[in-house]
Write a structure and sequence with these properties.
Layout: H1 2-20, E1 28-34, H2 41-51, E2 61-67, E3 70-73, E4 79-81, E5 97-101, E6 105-111
Parallel strand pairs: 1-2
Antiparallel strand pairs: 1-6, 3-4, 3-5
Helix pairs in contact: 1-2
């Protein structure tokens, strides 16, 4: 649910810019999205098409840069890449890990 609220806020911002500067459309929108979010590419594209109803969204190119999940071990301070095998520090085998990246969701760039 949190991701949908952030998506709606971002779309309102882009819509306001299009109206404020009397632009015809956004040509490309580039996002940074963490792998830990519940956002999928299809969800993002569909939501934009619905929200930007008055604009020519068929021609808007949407790029998504996926951010990998990185963790930091609170026990030994080692940086850890998340794997499909679970969240466990390979050095000390601690499960006490903090998320460093992978929860991002923001607009990196909008080209009009």
């Amino acid at each position: 649910m949190k991701e949908l609220i952030r998506q709606e806020e971002l779309i309102k911002t882009i819509s306001a810019q299009i109206s404020q500067y009397k632009l015809q459309k956004a040509a490309r929108i580039r996002f940074r999205v963490g792998r830990l979010t519940n956002i999928t590419e299809k969800m993002l594209v569909d939501f934009f098409r619905m929200a930007l109803n008055g604009h020519d969204v068929q021609k808007v190119e949407i790029e998504i840069e996926w951010v990998a999940v990185r963790l930091k071990c609170n026990a030994c301070q080692k940086a850890v890449d998340a794997t499909n095998e679970g969240y466990l520090c390979p050095s000390c085998h601690s499960e006490d890990l903090k998320v460093v990246s992978g929860e991002e969701f923001y607009i990196e760039e909008v080209i009009y």
